[in-house]
Design a protein that fits this description.
A 6-stranded mixed sheet has the order 5-6-7-3-8-9, sandwiched between helices. It has a 4-stranded antiparallel sheet with strand order 11-12-10-13, with helices on one face. A 3-stranded antiparallel sheet has the order 2-1-4, with helices on one face. The chain contains 12 helices and 13 strands. The structure holds adenosine-5'-triphosphate.
Length: 375
């Protein structure tokens, strides 16, 4: 088991990890999720004794990594797949690691087979693709047949077949009773791979729960309702009736209504009582990716801005008066996007600004009253 208690890492004025406490248990795949720059790699480096915590501590099986006897036989890690001497062949790279850890050479060929690199084992790794590099890094992690495995973004650069392979490998390693800790910024991938999730944002814990709990706490169920003929006045009438009945109604771009807070049979009754015929009444569930984005939207460090192309001139062929010329448009104000994520838990305004910080994001999770959802 990996256990972090009050783990904190500051680089000068920057706090990369802040008072993080969690446990990673054996026999399960634990996904470690967070947006770019949220502190995942820093946490993993501290687990592996590569970075000293500013305060707090982290142990593996009750010991700090540096005091583990024969650590490579107990803990395997993929941190940076590019951290390989490019002039060495894949096999020689693994052989040198094996020699340092007292692992027999025969094991090198075994792990090369496990990761599917046996045919390129004698090729220099500098010619490897990103995906091949990831496989080599995974082979290095498996070398000592360790009980504890850490993988930082292991599916980076892998093709769909490779992603499926990593997913199955993680599950298999956990089913053998090992502790498997995998970082990713892709919720959709973790939802398929992990049993348990630890989500961080700006170095702070946002969620620590199993995947099923995460789904029920975060995936807002909603009903999609389409009024016959799509007549605006009928839609408005139904919207009023559903709101009076306690539902929350939002409009989708195609004119359908998104309703939360009322079960489907009740929506049908309300429509009938209001004499509004329906063409569609269907149950939906927001994806986990949407829930994750909603949870972390206030703690994303890096956001893109619109490309204003300042100082760039229009190509001459499309100047004023020329066919195809379009005058420069002022930046369009962003309308709050209500169609890319499910409505937030009942009682919250979807157009309101994002919560102020991680604490608020955590509060969102706990506040939710699932009994009000459309089921
Ligand atoms: N050696 C360092 N010196 C200064 N700042 C650092 C150092 N290492 C990390 N940081 C900062 O700490 C924060 C967390 O970085 P970290 O690499 O741990 O995040 P991450 O979640 O792994 O990100 P990504 O998903 O992009 O890999 C970032 O703001 C990063 O710039």
């Amino acid at each position: 088991m990996i256990e972090a208690v009050g783990l904190t890492k500051r680089y000068g004025a920057k706090t990369a990890v802040s008072n993080l406490s969690f446990q990673v248990r054996p026999g399960t795949v634990t996904g470690f999720l967070g947006p770019n720059g949220s502190g995942k790699s820093t946490t993993m480096r501290m687990i592996l004794g590569l970075d000293q915590p500013t305060s707090g501590h982290v142990t593996i099986g009750g010991h700090p990594f540096r005091s583990l006897p024969n650590a490579p036989r107990q803990v395997g890690a993929l941190l940076d797949a590019k951290a390989v001497h490019g002039g060495r062949s894949a096999r020689n790279h693994l052989l040198s690691l094996a020699q340092l850890a007292g692992i027999p050479a025969a094991r090198v060929d075994e792990v090369l087979g496990v990761v599917g690199l046996q045919d390129v084992a004698r090729k220099r790794s500098k010619g490897f693709s990103l995906g091949m590099g990831q496989r080599l890094g995974i082979a290095a992690a498996l070398l000592g047949d360790p009980q504890v495995l850490l993988f930082d973004e292991p599916v980076n650069g892998l093709d769909p077949e490779g992603i499926l392979w990593v997913r199955n490998l993680m599950k298999m390693l956990a089913s053998e009773g090992r502790t498997v800790f995998v970082s990713s910024h892709l919720m959709s991938e973790m939802a398929l791979t992990a049993d348990h999730l630890i989500v961080i944002g700006r170095g702070q814990l946002l969620a620590d729960m199993n995947v099923k709990e995460f789904i029920s706490a975060n995936s807002a169920d909603f009903a999609r309702v389409r009024v016959a003929d799509g007549l605006a006045e009928r839609r408005e009438k139904l919207t009023t009736s559903l709101t009076e009945a306690g539902g929350r109604v939002m409009s989708e771009p195609d004119g359908a209504l998104r309703v939360t807070g009322l079960p489907l049979p009740r929506i049908s009754e309300v429509a009938h009582e209001s004499d509004v015929r329906l063409w569609e009444l269907s149950p939906h569930q927001a994806s986990l990716e949407e829930a994750y984005m909603r949870m972390t939207q206030s703690v994303v460090d890096y956001r893109s801005t619109a490309d204003q192309k300042a100082g760039l001139q229009q190509p001459a062929a499309h100047g004023h008066g020329q066919p195809g010329y379009e005058p420069p448009q002022p930046p369009v104000p962003q309308v709050p996007q209500q169609n890319w994520y499910a409505p937030p838990p009942p009682g919250q305004n979807p157009s309101a600004a994002a919560p102020a910080g991680p604490a608020a994001a955590t509060a969102d999770l706990t506040k939710r009253d699932t009994s009000e959802d459309a089921r």
